[in-house]
Amino acid sequence: MDGNGTNRLSAYRHKLVIAYDGSAYGGWQIQPNSRTVQGELESVFRTLTNVEVKVHGSGRTDQGVHALGQVAHCDLPTAWTGDRLLNALNASLPRDIRILKATRAAETFHARRSAVRKEYRYCIWNAPVLLPHLRQYRAHIREPLNLGAMCAAAACLAGVHDFAAFTANPNREVDSTTRNLMKLTVTQKGHDWVIAAMSEGFLYKMVRSLAGFLIRVGSGAVPPQEAARILQSKERTARVPTAPPEGLFLWRVWY
Amino acid sequence: MDGNGTNRLSAYRHKLVIAYDGSAYGGWQIQPNSRTVQGELESVFRTLTNVEVKVHGSGRTDQGVHALGQVAHCDLPTAWTGDRLLNALNASLPRDIRILKATRAAETFHARRSAVRKEYRYCIWNAPVLLPHLRQYRAHIREPLNLGAMCAAAACLAGVHDFAAFTANPNREVDSTTRNLMKLTVTQKGHDWVIAAMSEGFLYKMVRSLAGFLIRVGSGAVPPQEAARILQSKERTARVPTAPPEGLFLWRVWY
Description:
Chain A is α+β, with helices and mostly antiparallel strands.
């Protein structure tokens, strides 16, 4: 705490649900030489409250990845009603970041540590030509995908497994690369395909690795039975490419 | 015709179906000091064919207006198969302009003069907060809209009428401001509202004027019965605002 009362610990914890178009950002987390979603939020809070406010997200999203239900918490020097906070933030934030909901939260609420489950959705446009309005929100796969093969592979991958073969950097995980993938489904509606993945916790680039593998299965490059073999190998190889970021949405976080 | 054979009249007419995100363009039609969709197409044709190719659209779209089914024709010095032309154009065009279909066409086919019917859709997001991914593709209306009132007003406006009160510049029309509005409907699915308008021909900014008026009716500013009175007045007033361009899509052209 300094003499001006700035930077003091504040007692008023707030919870935010945030949507963003990740196209123009270097990701969620503040980093040098790059616009980030967290950076934009903290900069708006600085103007709004005259103190430094740290915004804690439920987790990072990578460069170019989107969110429809990112959750964050922050401590503010005064208590705000949800609507007033939502309107004040949205009035100052760029239009590609929107606060969908703002509420007071218990002091014990922590956006990352209190999260019990997350859902990501990976969105694919499967047709020869990608519609211009979707170009930043879909992975574009030209060759026809096989839904049955993708569903079979997804069923193999769902459940509790060591996903070392499906993370970009297994050494980054300090304790274990075993995760409970509670749901992994592939659905199709016209040219729109969605891979939905739900877990208590994901490894680094795990969803894009699962999507990259399922797309290879769908295009016939790899048989669905390979899923079990790759899981068992616990080794990341070229058979599991990382699908591009523009298809990925952090969909929802449960508490 | 010059000695190199450039600028000669070519015998091979082609038809294009084009989708574009109008956000970054000054509209369809070529104009000085502004990127235009027609300009981008003609520039790609110049590289592709080594001659000046004029691209004739079914009609202009204004700055910021989108298309999912704009149609154009052009005469090329050689005959192209549809797929080859589509792939060559899409390989060189910016990603916010896409050729959806390319075919050979009869010499008598004219994108504007042969059109018998057009459909525009005006898309609205009706909720307090506009999702970031839709910010360039929806008009954002915060206050709740009344579907019944909008449908009643739309039913009044459909049919053959003098639409002088629903065009930005009635003097621009040389012959008549009477048009056959074959369809004008309002539909809703969650926060997404769509006004669909079909006619053999539209006046200047007619769809955005109809949308602007219907939104005023939906928000309760004007009773639906005003539609008949405004039609009869044949005078454009502040009761008919022009809705913003980002909600408007040229949806389809019939031949």
